[in-house]
Fold this sequence. Notes:
Helices cover about 55% and strands about 15% of the residues. By secondary structure, the chain is α/β, with parallel strands linked by helices. It has one domain: Rossmann fold.
Amino acid sequence: MLIVGLTGSIGMGKSTAAAHLRARGLPVFDADAEVHRLYAGGKAVERIERAFPGTTTSEGVDRAKLSAALVAYPQRLRELEGIVHPMVREAERSFLRAEAKRGTPVAVLEIPLLFEAGADKLVDAIIVLTAPPEVQRERLLKRPALSEQKLSQLLGRQMPDVEKCERADFVVDTSGPVEATRAQLDKIIADLCSWSGQAYAHHWA
């Protein structure tokens, strides 16, 4: 089984790309969605409350309070990642093992912080989504409750877009019409047919 990492900085169109890959029959694991699930309840919430008192409620992690805590103490982001990332990695492992049992030829891990988390070493091919900075900023500032200050903080935690593109096997420009993005992805899917996968046996089996 070939494992593909799908990534890109915030606002680059990962959700749109993932939806298209699913429509083409490729199973996609959404790391962000898994984090949301972990924040809704269970062991992750208990550990986050112990580490960051007052950031959870009976309904799970209060993302606004947790974000405020990290703004006050940005150096503690690593501590939060140390709680959440291993849990996400186990969910990814379960997903990949299930797909391998089905005989799936290509499986996709959609991971926003693929390079930052070192997960680039755990996949066979990497697709990076990109767009010019002005397009990215315009998209993001349309989102509710995302100020210039918060945007700068988010971008500061991520590897620069140009570096991600340099380390990618495939780069998709998402600044044009969605049909153009889909066409680029279709070509990549066709190209991947000639790739062989080693990452599953080495890291996930």
